[in-house]
């Protein structure tokens, strides 16, 4: 048995998505900066106590895995055939609405109810056997796919910088309670079973761009699940006892319109 450090994979995804975010932001900012006499646009409803909008989002998500003590024990023969269990990042998307309450010119309370479509892939790597096809390393990989449709209600505090012409930078932080639309009885049929409810910590940043008729916001947000959502008793017993905890994590790129 051996453990595989997947944090370097998370770091690669983080770098790629962050680079994409700043490239898009730079392209939009360069368009704004080409005209030094651009009029100040009044779009975005920033002066109203309540304002509304919608968004589209693309995310990549995975699971944070903690092995059980039984799996880590080299003297335990129960999981001697398992080399490692490795969550893999998978793409998805979500869409929803923006509900904003103005607390101050630079401070906003924001609710973003949404529906998210997730796919969690987990690779279970078994040591070589004669009955199955294996790769050049003598390991056979079984990929487990868990699909989830989640109803989410992120509640966020948004802190905005002073407005500079038609642009503004902001930071967001808050909590995201969520629940799955599929019943637990249906989910128990999966090989890797996850619980239906979770709460995640959300942190992000972005830019507001004020156009003539609407405000567009480009935002990147990181989400870390706080609950252990693993249900060992109904997962595949070939590997169920090797896992102690599973927690969600995701990186999301939001396109907001107001």
Automatic annotation (TrEMBL):
Domain of life per record: Bacteria
Domain spans labelled Outer membrane protein beta-barrel: 43-230
Membrane-spanning residues: 12-32
Protein keywords: Membrane, Transmembrane, Transmembrane helix
Protein name: PorT family protein
Organism whose genome encodes this protein: Echinicola soli
């Amino acid at each position: 048995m051996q453990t595989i450090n997947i944090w370097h994979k998370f770091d690669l995804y983080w770098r790629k998505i962050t680079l994409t975010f700043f490239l898009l932001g730079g392209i939009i900012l360069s368009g704004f900066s080409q005209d030094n006499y651009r009029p100040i646009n009044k779009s975005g409803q920033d002066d109203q106590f309540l304002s509304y909008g919608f968004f589209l989002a693309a995310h990549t998500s995975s699971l944070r895995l903690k092995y059980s003590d039984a799996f880590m024990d080299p003297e335990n023969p129960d999981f001697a055939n398992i080399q490692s269990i490795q969550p893999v990042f998978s793409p998805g998307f979500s869409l929803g609405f923006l509900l904003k309450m103005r607390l101050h010119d630079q401070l906003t309370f924001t609710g973003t109810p949404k529906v998210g479509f997730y796919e969690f892939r987990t690779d279970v790597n078994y040591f070589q056997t004669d009955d199955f096809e294996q790769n050049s390393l003598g390991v056979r990989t079984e990929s487990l796919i868990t699909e989830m449709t989640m109803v989410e209600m992120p509640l966020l505090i948004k802190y905005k910088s002073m407005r500079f012409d038609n642009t503004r930078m902001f930071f967001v932080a808050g909590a995201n309670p969520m629940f799955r639309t599929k019943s637990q009885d249906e989910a128990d049929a999966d090989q890797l079973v996850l619980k239906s409810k979770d709460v995640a910590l959300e942190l992000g940043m972005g830019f507001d761009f004020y156009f003539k008729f609407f405000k567009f916001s480009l935002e990147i947000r990181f989400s870390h699940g706080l609950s252990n959502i693993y249900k060992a008793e109904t997962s595949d017993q070939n590997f169920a006892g090797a896992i102690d905890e599973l927690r969600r994590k995701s990186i999301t790129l939001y396109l907001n319109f107001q």
